[in-house]
Amino acid sequence: MNARTSEGIAQAAQAAVEAALWAPSIHNTQPWSFGVSGDEICLRADPDRKLRISDPTGRQMTISCGAALFNVRITLLALGYEPEVRRFPDPERPLLLARIRVRPGREPGEHIRLLHAEVERRRTHRSGFTALPVPDRLVDALVSEAAPEGGRLMPITSDAAARVLAALTGAAQDVQSQDRLFVLELMRWARPPGSSRRDGVPAAGYPTDPRRMHPQHFAQRDYARGHEWGMAPDERVSASTGLVALLSTGGDGREDWLRAGEALQRMLLHASAYGVSVAFHTQALEMPELREFIRTHLCSGESPQMIMRLGFVIDESESVRRAPSEVVE
Predict the structure, then answer these.
(1) Domain ranges, ordered by start, for the chain
(2) 254: helix, strand or coil
(3) Pairwise CA distance, residues 97 & 66, whole Å
(4) Beta bridge partners of 249
(5) Which of 67, 53, 31 is nearest to 283 (CA)?
(6) What angle do CA 299, 300, 302 make, to 5 degrees?
(7) With b meaning 16 or more CB within 10 Å and e meaning fewer, what string describes 275-294?
(8) In whole angstroms, what is the distance from residue 123 CA to residue 125 CA?
């Protein structure tokens, strides 16, 4: 390996880690850290950023890290390198989720470049959509994107099933809003206007007064908690529910969770490339009884990992990310 090649690999590894920081995460907790040494990148979960009340098993933390892992992979591919990934390489180090070696690769194809271009553009949406439906052909493409990563994206085409998911989301939201520990945990990740923090959900990331969606209303997290925070609702948006979908996996272990995050991010980047935004609703999946109900009655026995809505918006919300110096060793 000559010096020029070593330098190129080091630069690619740094670019891949910086791209990983743009992955979505529950409440924008960004629960990851990275180590870079030569041609190797290590992805670790950050237990200090785990949601101990709503995510005691670390499932959502691991899904978030899986999304970051996919950003590493797609960035290396886009730069002409091959990511050699070992997931959970050391049983004695459970926080070490993946080790990625940067190998010489080939010129990236058009689809890889398409996904990579959306890494910093993609945003999480937190309200209703316009009335414009997501085309069936695009929905099929999103289903195909999730499959190679080990995830099953299931569009909810039944009105009854969509009503059930909306009702379960509302029920979980109501229960959690009465639980002091849930509320305090959520408040930790809610950022007031003018905050200099580079994590959590900023006040401009959700509407001040979310309009009721139709035909099914999905409860939104109450990040403001009685404060007049948020952005003014866009009257140009019809507050449509959009397309409801479930992401599931065949198993429900830590590797399934990590791969669910990779499948999710691959699908999200493809959606973003065609102007489709995605809103997440994890409340019901944070309650074991409701998650089991969804697994049994709506997922054909597979494990539900994410409930989401897809649609088109006019203006996207803001997002914040921590500096690489805070995350990378």
Answers:
(1) 3-120, 124-311
(2) helix
(3) 9
(4) 303
(5) 53
(6) 65
(7) ebbbbbbbbbbbbeebbebb
(8) 6
pLDDT tens for the chain, 329 residues long, are 434 478 889 999 999 999 999 999 999 999 999 999 999 999 999 999 999 999 999 999 999 999 999 999 999 999 999 999 999 999 999 999 999 999 999 999 999 999 999 999 999 999 899 999 999 999 999 999 999 999 999 999 999 999 999 999 999 999 999 999 999 999 999 999 989 999 999 988 888 766 789 999 999 998 888 777 877 766 666 789 999 999 999 999 999 999 999 999 999 999 999 999 999 999 999 999 999 999 999 999 999 999 999 999 987 777 899 999 999 98
Q: What is the CATH number of domain 124-311?
A: 3.40.109.10
Q: Is the fold of 3-120 the same as that of 124-311?
A: yes
Q: Return the residue matching tokens 């003018």.
A: 194
**CB count in 10 Å sphere of residue 303:** 22
Cα–Cα distance measured from residue 312 to residue 133, given in angstroms and rounded to the nearest whole number: 8
CA distances from 139 to 21, 45, 310 (A): 27, 31, 9
Question: CATH assignment of 3-120?
Answer: 3.40.109.10
Phi, psi torsion values for 251, nearest 5 degrees: -110, -175
Instruction: Assess contact for 100 and 83: CB atoms under 8 A.
Output: yes
DSSP 8-state code for residue 47: G
Query: pTM value?
Result: 0.95
Instruction: Count Cα atoms within 13 angstroms, Cβ side, for 131.
Output: 5
Tokens standing for 322?
């921590």
Angstrom distances, CA of residue 230 to CA of 167, 278, 302 = 25, 19, 36
Residue type, 61: M
246 contacts: CB under 8 Å, gap ≥ 6: 153, 154, 156, 165, 294, 298, 299, 304, 306, 307, 308
For residue 102, count other CB atoms closer than 10 A to its CB: 24
Q: How far is CA 7 from CA 3, 38, 43, 101, 112, in A?
A: 6, 9, 21, 15, 23
